[in-house]
Amino acid sequence: MLFMVKMDVNIPAEFDAEKATQLKFVEKNRFQELQRSGKWRHIWRVVGQYANVSIFDVESNAELHDLLVTLPLYPFMTVTVAPLCRHPSSIYEDDR
Amino acid sequence: MLFMVKMDVNIPAEFDAEKATQLKFVEKNRFQELQRSGKWRHIWRVVGQYANVSIFDVESNAELHDLLVTLPLYPFMTVTVAPLCRHPSSIYEDDR
Amino acid sequence: MLFMVKMDVNIPAEFDAEKATQLKFVEKNRFQELQRSGKWRHIWRVVGQYANVSIFDVESNAELHDLLVTLPLYPFMTVTVAPLCRHPSSIYEDDR
Amino acid sequence: MLFMVKMDVNIPAEFDAEKATQLKFVEKNRFQELQRSGKWRHIWRVVGQYANVSIFDVESNAELHDLLVTLPLYPFMTVTVAPLCRHPSSIYEDDR
Amino acid sequence: MLFMVKMDVNIPAEFDAEKATQLKFVEKNRFQELQRSGKWRHIWRVVGQYANVSIFDVESNAELHDLLVTLPLYPFMTVTVAPLCRHPSSIYEDDR
Amino acid sequence: MLFMVKMDVNIPAEFDAEKATQLKFVEKNRFQELQRSGKWRHIWRVVGQYANVSIFDVESNAELHDLLVTLPLYPFMTVTVAPLCRHPSSIYEDDR
Amino acid sequence: MLFMVKMDVNIPAEFDAEKATQLKFVEKNRFQELQRSGKWRHIWRVVGQYANVSIFDVESNAELHDLLVTLPLYPFMTVTVAPLCRHPSSIYEDDR
Amino acid sequence: MLFMVKMDVNIPAEFDAEKATQLKFVEKNRFQELQRSGKWRHIWRVVGQYANVSIFDVESNAELHDLLVTLPLYPFMTVTVAPLCRHPSSIYEDDR
Amino acid sequence: MLFMVKMDVNIPAEFDAEKATQLKFVEKNRFQELQRSGKWRHIWRVVGQYANVSIFDVESNAELHDLLVTLPLYPFMTVTVAPLCRHPSSIYEDDR
Amino acid sequence: MLFMVKMDVNIPAEFDAEKATQLKFVEKNRFQELQRSGKWRHIWRVVGQYANVSIFDVESNAELHDLLVTLPLYPFMTVTVAPLCRHPSSIYEDDR
C-alpha cells in the first residue's frame, strides 16, 4: 500500500552540532535499511530545501506511523502524508 | 532530470459528457505513450481525489512544460510542479 | 484500517431539483449498505454545514478510493482524507 | 452531545525529559478515566503526526472546555473543536 | 448553551430579484421569531459586508444545526460556528 | 459603537509563573471595571482555547485602541477587531 | 473617525457592457460627492489591480456601513475594513 | 510616487527594556524628520495592533527601500509594501 | 525603476475561441512593442502554468499601472506586483 | 535552464553580530563568483524586505540544489524555487 510522505527537516541553529551529525548518520543507516527492505521505495531531495519527497510501500497505516515516528530525525521534521493507489491508466500492473 | 507534478482534474458538470469521454481516452493514450518512453516515470491516484501525483524524467524545464500543456485534459487541470534531485543517502545511483 | 474522511457537499442552485432528490436517495441507500457492511463505521453531521465527518474501516487505500469516487453525490463533494491508526493509550484493543 | 476534537501536541526539545515522561503518564491516566466514563468516546492517532483525532460526548460546551483545558498536556497542545450531531441517514439511532 | 455564528450571504447577481426579496422577507420573519424566543440572542451587521455575527442560545448541537439549515437564505450562506461558554471572570452569572 | 474583538492569549511556558498569576489578577480586575462601566459589554470563552470573544461598546476607534493596548495581558495577546453595527432586522432598537 | 477600506472590483465578463459603463458613471459621481463632503478622504489605485485603497472619515461604524453598501458598484466589490486611529508620534494633530 | 506600507512591530518580551525605549525614541525622531520632509505623508495606528498603516511619497523604489530598512525598529518589523497611483475619479489633481 | 510582475491567465472554456485567438495575437504584438521599447525587460513562462513572470522597467507606478491594465488579455489575468531595486552586492551597476 | 529563486533572509537578533558580518562577506564573495560565471544571472532586492528575487541559469536541478544549499547564509534563508522556460512571444532567442 503506497503513501507519499513529505518531510521538512529543521534542526535549530543552537542544537549541538556533533549530536546533529550523529543523528544524521543514524538516520541515514535507518533509511538505507528501510530502502533495502522495499518499504521506503523512493526518496528525492526537493530542490533548494532541506526536505524530501518519499514513497512508502507498507502493510498498513499503523506500520507507516511506526516507521515515521521512530526515525532519528523525526523530532525535527514536519511530516505530511497522502495515501495513494494504483492509477487505472498505468501500463504497469504494479507501479511502485 | 526529475520533477514531481500534481494534477487536479476538474471537468465542469455542464461539460458535454461524450466529449469528456473522448478527451479522457486521448489523454490515456498520450499518457501511456509518455509512460512507455520513460518520460512519465510514475503515476499514482491520490485517494479520494480526481487527481494524480506523478514523477517526470525530462531533459529540461522546456520539455516538461511542453509535455504538460499539450495534455488533452490540461485545460481542466490545476498543476503544481516541484523540481527534485537525487537524495545523497539513496543506495540506488539512479532512483527514478 | 481506519481513515477519517470529511465530505463537503455543494449541489449548485441551478442543478435540477428532482434529479438532486433522486441522487440523495441513491446516496442514502448506498451509504446504509456500506454502514451495514461495517466499512463506513461512523458518520456525523458538522453543525451548520452540508458536510459530514466519517470514519471508514477498509482493507486498503484502493478500496477506500473506490468506495468514495463511486458515491452518487461524489461529483458534488470536496473530500479530504486522513489516515488514522490505533492510539496506544486506548483501553479498547480495537477502537473503531 | 458530540464534538470532534483534534489535538496537535508539541513538546519543545528543551523541555525537561523526565517531566515530559511524567506528564504523559498523568495524561494517559486522565485520558483512560475519561474514556471509561464514556465522555472521551474515541481516540485515534493521525498517521505520521504527534496528534490525535477524538470524539467527545459531553453534556455541554462548558463541560468540554473544562475537560480539555485541564488535560496535563494541554499547555503543549493546539486544539480545534467542531460540534457534531447525528446524521439523518444513519441506521443507528445513537451513533457515538 | 452559547454559540457564535458568522453568516456570509452571497446571492448571485443572476438570481431572480423578486424571489430574492421574498426570501429576505421570510428570513426576516423567521429571524424575529427566533429572536423573540431567545434562541437567537444577538445579531450584528459586519461593517462593509453582507454578513452578520450572531449569538445563539440553544439546548444542543442538533437544535443549532436544525435552526441554521432551515433558514430561508441558508442555501446562499457560508456559515462558521464556534462553541462558546461562560467566561470565569464575568461579573454576570449568565452573560448571554 | 460596537466592535467584536477576539483575544488569543499565549503566555510562554518559560514566563515566570508568579508574575503570570499576578498579571491575570490585575487583568481580571481591569476587565471587571470595564464590564461594570458598560464598555466591555460581553465576554465568552472559546471552547478548548485560551481565548475569548468579546463585544465592546465605545465612543470611538481611539477609545477602543487605548482600552485594548493597556490590558495587562496585551503583550501576550493576538487581537483581531471587527467593527459591527445594528442589524436592520433586529426587534431591539439597541441590541448591545 | 478613520477607516482604511480596500475595494476589489470584479465585474463579470458576461455583464452587460452598457449597464457597466452607466454604473461606473454613477459610482464616480457618488464617489466625488462623498470626496467633496470630506467623508471619503483619500482614494488611490492599487498598481496592476482593479482595486482601490481608501481612507474614510465618518461619525460611526453605521455611517461607514451605509456609505459602502449603497455604492453603485458594491455588488461587484470585495470589501475589507480596518479601523484606524491617530498615531501618537504624528506631528499633525489631525492627520486625515 | 506613492506607496502604502504596513508595519507590524514585534519586540520580543526578553529584549532589554531600556534599549527598547531608546530605540522607540530614535524611531520617533526619525519618523518626524521624514514626516516633515513630506516623504512619510501619512501614518495611522491600526486599532488593537502594535502596527501602523502609512503612505510614503518617494522618488523611486530604491529610496523607499533605503528609508524602510534604516528605520531603528526595522529589525522588529514585518513590512508589506503596495505601490499606489492616482485614482482617475479623484477631484484632487494630487491626492497624497 | 524595476518591478516583478506575475500574470496568471485564465480564459474561460466558454469564451469564443476565435476571439481568444485574436486577443492573443494583439497581446503578442503589444508585448513585443513594449519589449522593444525596453519597458518589458524580461518575460519567462512558469513551467506547467499558463502564466509568466516578467520584469518591467518603468518611470513610475502610474506608468506600470497603465501598461498592465491596457493589455488585451488583462481582463483574464490575475496580476501580482512586487517593487524591486538594485541589489548592493551585484557587480553590474545597472542589472535590469 | 532557468529558475526563479526567492530568498528571504532572517538572521535571529541573538546571533553573534561579528559572525553575521563575516557570513555576509563570504556570501557576497560567493554570490559575485556565481554572478561572474553566469549561473546567478540576476539578483534584485525586494523593496522593504531582507530578501532577493534571483534568476539562475544552470545545467540541472541538482546543480541548482548544490548552489543554493552551500550558500553561506543558506541556514538563515527561506527559499522558494520556480522552474521557468523561454516565453514563445519573446523577440529574443535567448532571454536570460
Automatic annotation (TrEMBL), chains A, B, C, D, E, F, G, H, I, J:
Pathway note: Aromatic compound metabolism; beta-ketoadipate pathway; 5-oxo-4,5-dihydro-2-furylacetate from catechol: step 3/3
GO MF annotation list: muconolactone delta-isomerase activity
Coiled coil stretches, renumbered: none
Enzyme superclass (EC): isomerase
Keyword tags: Aromatic hydrocarbons catabolism, Isomerase
Assembly description: Homodecamer.
Protein name: Muconolactone Delta-isomerase
Organism per entry: Acetobacter orleanensis
Primary gene name: catC
